[in-house]
Amino acid sequence: MSQLSRVVVGLSGGVDSAVTAYLLKQQGHEVIGIFMKNWEDDDDTGYCSSNVDFVDAAAVADVLGIEIEHVNFAADYKDRVFSEFLREYQAGRTPNPDILCNAEIKFKSFLDHAMRLGAQKIATGHYARVRLNNQTGRHELLKGLDASKDQSYFLHRLNQEQLSKTMFPVGELHKTEVRRIAEEIGLPNAKKKDSTGICFIGERPFRDFLNRYISKEPGPIKDPSGRTIGKHVGLSFYTLGQRQGLGIGGIKVKGAQRGGGEHTPWFVARKDIEKNTLWVVQGHDHPWLLSPCLQAVDISWCAGQSPEDGQFAAKTRYRQADAPCQLNKLTTPDGQSGFELSFGENQWAVTPGQSAVIYDQEVCLGGGVIFSAITLPID
After folding, report:
1. Catalytic residue IDs
2. Residue 71: how many CB atoms within 10 A of its CB?
3. What is the distance between the alpha carbons of residues 264 and 267, in angstroms, rounded to a whole number?
4. Domain count, the chain
5. Would you call 347 exposed, middle or buried from its count of C-beta atoms within 10 A (0-12, 13-18, 19+)?
6. pLDDT category, 331, cuts 50, 70, 90?
7. N or C: which end of the chain has fewer CB within 10 A?
8. Domain stop point among 227, 251, 285
9. Does residue 379 form part of some domain?
10. Statement to judge: residues 149 and 197 lie in one domain
């Protein structure tokens, strides 16, 4: 973008958004900072750090000489993100709230607020890029240049209107360069560690957190032979591929399961909601953990329309390497539009509720929510 404009930056208190604001100001834009408060429950605990983060964001704004506004989107977050998050967990799926939070809060509620402030653009500290394709006239979402930090997976539900008004300055940089800039200009949060945990809710014991909102219904843990080897605390509290916290580490199996010997770790492989049964297997490469294909619904394409069926690459979870696949459109028996992905190599622990995100090299095309995956039969 050649012309200068008013850009509203989402200042989170972290180093990435701080350097984002600095870079835009250096380019000559009029920069305004917005700190989003999106969670109020138990905000006085040590897990939700919004008060500390706001102090950090305000300190950054002071150093950069920009205005900062504190905005509360907690009601929007609870209605449009957290309620869906709980519904998915109660249905036995494992949602990714960061994806929904980006689509509904950071690039909807925040974007709308910024436009009311007279902004031409918004900016965040995400490691991704936006490019206008002059041939198609459409805006494309690209991976960040730092492959180890690329966050396009979390942004794949952004549409053309959102992309056209969004800037990701640090997407052009590596994290080491972002840290270097922050230290060089004396930002107070230059060495602040990256945040993890649920978007806006913070880093807290997850099972304890879920337990406050979802009722427990204990049931049996079974192995592939149907033997009951333990008791789960409620299917909502487990996810496919989970290894820790099963409470069955000492169980041995005669004539080891395929994928490991009798001392091999156990993994969550299936959740039977109807019978309230958690199925577990031994061995990271057990057939029940490997899927040659998946189906997804609730699809969203950055271009506003689906690509033609063909060969692409996909991620079925964040930080996964791109996996070559065949994309085919489908319509589910109940009439939902979706797609099927068939992989050249079996994918590990494909999890209903998570997102399958499609790539054409560096371009993120969009994706959908996984609702089923075929696993291999046991020989």
Report:
1. 101, 199
2. 14
3. 10
4. 3
5. buried
6. very high
7. C
8. 285
9. no
10. yes
Confidence at residue 196, expressed as pLDDT on a 0 to 100 scale: 59
Per-residue pLDDT of 298-324, as tens digits, reads: 999 999 999 999 999 999 999 899 999
Per-residue HEC secondary structure of the chain comes to: CCCCCEEEEECCCCHHHHHHHHHHHHCCCEEEEEEEECCCCCCCCCCCCHHHHHHHHHHHHHHHCCEEEEEECHHHHHHHHHHHHHHHHHCCCCCCHHHHHHHHHHHHHHHHHHHHCCCCEEECCCCEEEEEECCCCEEEEEECCCCCCCCHHHHCCCCHHHHHCEECHHHHCCHHHHHHHHHHCCCCCCCCCCCCCECCCECCCHHHHHHCCCCCCCEEEECCCCCEEEEECCHHHCCCCCCCCCCCCCCCCCCCCCCCCCCCCEEEEEEECCCCEEEEEECCCCHHHEEEEEEEEEEEECCCCCCCCEEEEEECCCCCCCEEEEEEEEECCCCCEEEEEEEEEEEECCCECEEEEEEECCEEEEEEEEEEEECCCCC
Give a yes or no: residue 330 inside a domain: yes
Residue with tokens 């969009």, as numbered in its chain: 366
pLDDT over 80 at 50, yes or no? no
Of 109, 63, 27, nearest to 7 (Cα)? 27
CATH code of 73's domain? 3.40.50.620
Is the confidence at residue 200, as pLDDT, over 60?
A: no
212 — pLDDT class (breaks 50, 70, 90): confident
Question: Same domain, yes or no, for 292 and 159?
Answer: no
Domain with residue 342: its CATH number is 2.40.30.10
Q: Are residues 110 and 24 in the same domain?
A: yes
Q: Which domain-ending residue is among 147, 171, 206? A: 206
Both 42 and 97 in a single domain? Answer: yes
Which pLDDT value is given to residue 144?
98
Q: State which residues form the domain around 320.
A: 288-374
pLDDT digits (tens, 9 = 90+) for 254-298: 444 444 555 689 999 999 999 999 999 999 999 999 999 999 999
